[in-house]
Write a structure and sequence with these properties.
Structural class: alpha/beta
Largest sheet: 5 strands, mixed
Strand order of the largest sheet: 1-3-2-4-5
Helix content: 40-55%
Radius of gyration: 18 Å
Oligomer: single chain
CATH class of the largest domain: Mainly Alpha
Distance between the termini: 12 Å
CATH architecture of the largest domain: Up-down Bundle
Order of helices and strands: EEHEEEHHHHHHHHH
Shape: globular
Number of strands: 5
Length: 235
């Protein structure tokens, strides 16, 4: 069971000496990136979930902007999901996740995530066909990369860094259909490798153990869009 989301008035939990601590939020895709890497590399850690709408007063001492994820190593605080992932892969060299060319490819995920949130919030008056056209060239980059690597995963026979950095939005892709009442109208033969990748990632042990899915994420999004009380522990 996930730990409860600490809110205003709560006390900061004491740390265990020698154990990493991740400040997270159960439904945040960026925090999920850090959780995936910690789990994939089997790094001892604990997780403290933060209510991002009604933050504990002490949390700004951890992250001045009040965001997640934030990793407390015992000697320093590391923020930003990619910086945390890179730190963990370098500091804990067993089961290395990053391959040559991965960091450049990971930078190309950002346009997809930007479009994803715009599409959910309907910030532009676009039809589903227009949204699909906007996504297509960015998805094609990753489709072509899987073809070039000739593997199910970007990491090869098992997921690697690109897979874990992209997967939180693969897990949440179905949220668009919930928000719009219909799926993006991609052709059935479009992106076959990405479709296979998404299915394989869903079945991966690391991903499946912390899977929440699009329905729970949509409830979280609705709380924000409708300015509802942020009761994340009830989702």
């Amino acid at each position: 069971m996930p730990s409860p989301h600490l809110t205003t008035g709560s006390q900061q939990p004491p740390k265990t000496e020698g154990k990493l601590r991740l400040y997270s939020m159960e439904f945040c895709p960026y925090a999920q990136r850090a959780r995936l890497v910690l789990k994939a590399k089997n790094i001892p850690h604990d997780i403290v979930n933060i209510n991002l709408i009604k933050k504990p007063e002490w949390y700004t001492k951890i992250h001045p902007e009040g965001k997640v994820p934030a990793l407390d190593t015992g000697s320093k605080i590391i923020v930003e999901s990619l910086d945390i992932a890179n730190f963990l892969d370098a500091e804990y060299p067993d089961n290395p996740l990053c391959k040559p060319g991965d960091k450049e490819l990971i930078q190309k995920i950002a346009p997809i995530t930007d479009l994803f949130y715009q599409c959910l919030a309907k910030t532009e008056n676009k039809s589903l066909e227009e949204w699909a056209q906007a996504f297509a060239p960015h998805l094609a980059v990753f489709e072509s990369e899987l073809e070039a690597r000739k593997s199910t995963f970007f990491g090869g026979e098992k997921p690697g860094m690109v897979d874990y950095m992209l997967w939180p939005w693969g897990e949440r892709a179905g949220t668009i259909a919930i928000a719009h009442g219909a799926q993006l109208p991609f052709a059935s033969d479009q992106f076959p490798r990405l479709r296979k990748w998404r299915k394989a990632m869903r079945e991966d042990k690391v991903c499946s153990e912390i899977y929440n899915g699009p329905e729970k994420f949509w409830k979280c999004v609705e709380m924000k869009l409708k300015n509802l009380p942020p009761d994340y522990d009830s989702i």
